[in-house]
Amino acid sequence: MNIIIRNSSNQPIYEQIYTQIKDMILNGTLTEGDMLPSIRGLAKDLRISVITTKRAYDELEREGYVNTVAGKGCFVAGTNRELIQEENLKKIEAHMQQIRQLAAGCGITNEELVEMFRILEVEE
């Protein structure tokens, strides 16, 4: 599992771990039943506290992304397709808001944005 910790980030380390694992689950890199690294193993690999790793795993479990099986480890939970859809819609809306703000700063109209999107669709 490739998790990158950025010490220069304003985001706490446990949140960086939580976010990266959640994103891997939502984008399908990790699928239902996949085993996550042990809390101690991940902490050792990332050179961070076991408590920090545990906090990230606890948050993932609280949100329903993973299940912990005593003595066996943490596994990716069965994903709720509606939850994934909602998460992705939030991301799309956030990106669209950024695009709209950037376009407004450049004097690009909504119609021009739609046309740009259509051109990109045709090119693919």
Automatic annotation (TrEMBL):
Pfam families to which the protein is assigned, alphabetical: GntR (PF00392)
InterPro entries for this protein: Tscrpt_reg_HTH_GntR (IPR000524), WH-like_DNA-bd_sf (IPR036388), WH_DNA-bd_sf (IPR036390)
Matching SMART domains: HTH_GNTR (SM00345)
Keyword field: DNA-binding, Transcription, Transcription regulation
Keyword Iron: no
Gene3D superfamilies: Winged helix-like DNA-binding domain superfamily/Winged helix DNA-binding domain
Residues annotated as domain HTH gntR-type: 11-79
Transcription regulation listed as a keyword: yes
Domain of life: Bacteria
Single GO term (MF): DNA binding
PANTHER family: GNTR-FAMILY TRANSCRIPTIONAL REGULATOR, HTH-TYPE TRANSCRIPTIONAL REPRESSOR YTRA
Protein name: GntR family transcriptional regulator
